[in-house]
Amino acid sequence: MVFLGIGLMGQTMTKNIVAKADLEKPLILWNRTRKRAEEHSASIGHSTVAATVEEAVTKADIIWSCLQDQEAVTETFEEILEMDIRGKLFLESSTVLPDVTNRIAKQVEEAGAEFVAMLVFGEPSLANIGKLICVPAGPAASVSRIKPYLVGVVAQAVVDLSGEEAGKASLLKIIGNVLIMTTMETCAEINVFAEKTGLGVENAQKLIDNFPHAAAHTIYSSKMVNGDYYQKEPMVEVTKARHLTSQVLDLAKENNVSLKSYQVAVEHLADVEYNAGPKEDICGIYGAVRMESGMEFYNKGPKNGMANGKHGFEKLL
């Protein structure tokens, strides 16, 4: 097996694959920045690093990819489709639009290979402990081949779309991202409300931690009130999130769907990018709501000596 893409999600998933899956041979890793793959390989063991995509794909029967964005997915598969890939199985976990997934699936199948879109839900801390929710879609026989690597390895549960076209997994992922963004928006507003009224974010967090079905709220709210949204490596950079959210809104418009709460979250993402920069974490929504409420963007002081907010608060959308 080979795994393409050693970002935060790729690192946690491959760690669990090596530790928990029954691999006869070392896992092959490939990443655009080879140094990251080499450092990760050294840390997880039972793995090797390929110098090129061609080398990686040639050596494996199952090729699992989780790449940074749609552009990276498209470019990588353009290279892959120039190779002889007959008999191989491609398992794609990157977040892309449904029509892109379906196009790649068709091209891979026409080249004599199998394709499963296998989107995942869960941020890196959940991925690290193998608690992702996996959504595989594609031919049932192909999905069956990859199930041994899911529950008990990288996942706690599977939403099985066997027999559905591959793009259905991407569509469900996009719908899930709407839920995630609106959850972040809710957490940001609740914490600002608690601080402004004198209740305090600590007390609000106690409620969130114990609220029924509040796991997602707990995760995102903690990232906000602990200052992780600017003090730690971004879960997702805001500029990349804005690119995807614009595509989601276009898809909603095409289908005459109103996503007002999501639109508010998207507007706050624009505020994050404007005030803090394109590489800030998407949980910086909290900072945007804080500024909208007359508070400073950074809740625990400036980042690296920066002033709180580059330009003051402005609506961009």
Count of individual beta strands: 9
Beta-strand percent range:
5-15%
Examine the secondary-structure arrangement and name the CATH architecture of the largest domain: 3-Layer(aba) Sandwich
What's the SSE pattern?
EHEHEHEHEHEHEHEEHHHHHHH
The general outline is: globular
Mean pLDDT across residues: 91
Instruction: Work out the count of structural domains.
Output: 2
Judged by helices, strands and strand pairing, the structural class is alpha/beta
CATH superfamily of the largest domain: NAD(P)-binding Rossmann-like Domain
Distance between the termini: 44 Å
Report the major sheet: 9 strands, mixed
Q: Would you identify the regions where 5 or more consecutive residues have pLDDT less than 50?
A: 311-317
Q: What helical percentage do the residues reach? A: 40-55%
Question: Measured on Cα atoms, how large is the radius of gyration?
Answer: 20 Å
- Note the total helix count: 14
Domain 6-phosphogluconate dehydrogenase NADP-binding: 3-152
Organism: Lepraria neglecta
InterPro entries: 6-PGluconate_DH-like_C_sf (IPR008927), 6PGD_dom2 (IPR013328), 6PGDH_NADP-bd (IPR006115), HIBADH-related (IPR015815), HIBADH-related_NP60_sf (IPR051265), NAD(P)-bd_dom_sf (IPR036291)
Protein name: 6-phosphogluconate dehydrogenase NADP-binding domain-containing protein
